[in-house]
Amino acid sequence: MKLDILAFGAHPDDVELGCAGTILKEISLGKKVGIVDLTRGELGTRGTAETRDQEASAAATILGVSVRENLKMRDGFFVNDEKHQREIIKMIRKYQPEIVLCNAIDDRHIDHAKGSKLVSDACFLSGLIKIETELDGEKQLTWRPKVVYHYLQWKNIEPDFVVDITGFNEKKIASILAYRTQFYDPESNEPESPISSKNFLESLSYRSRDLGRLTGVEYAEGFTVERYLAVNSLGDLR
């Protein structure tokens, strides 16, 4: 299955938090989108790996993605080495995305920056013909995505561009709330975490509203880039 966009997250819910609105919009425009989670989020303060599996599946259904896979790397302890890079390369060559979305380049959780660099490095290596990989017993063809974009997470990193997600924020929040164990629930007996507060849940919408305010739309999501953006003409810019 060839995908237009492949979104990677260090943990289940990273993609939903960072770029679910963009994914929903692209799918509405006819694009095929997939998600690959690096870990099962087993070190999370709330819930278990098993509940996260179920929640990730429910969120994928809400988003309408074509596929979702989990590489089952060790939460908190995966590293950017050849072994882990090859696992990412297999996914890139399997789905041949034109665009890759991945974690923020710097963030509160150490896995986010690690995952960001791991995926970015693997995107480059995936295009080298002398790196051979096999999947299900078949040799894979080389593939390098055209671009890699990094979504925003906990930290307020200044974006290089934003995507208008007006009309998609409500469904984005629904996909996030599919992770029932992770986010604000006044009836939960789970320990509190930095992302389980009401303030954090509300911040997701007011960040999107603020990025929208700054760019003349209602809601927007921000991304950083690895190389200069280019347009055909000034008329392409809003």
UniProtKB/TrEMBL annotation:
Q: Which domain of life is it from?
A: Bacteria
Name of the protein:
Bacillithiol biosynthesis deacetylase BshB1
User: Taxonomic classification, please?
Assistant: Bacteria, Pseudomonadati, Bacteroidota, Flavobacteriia, Flavobacteriales
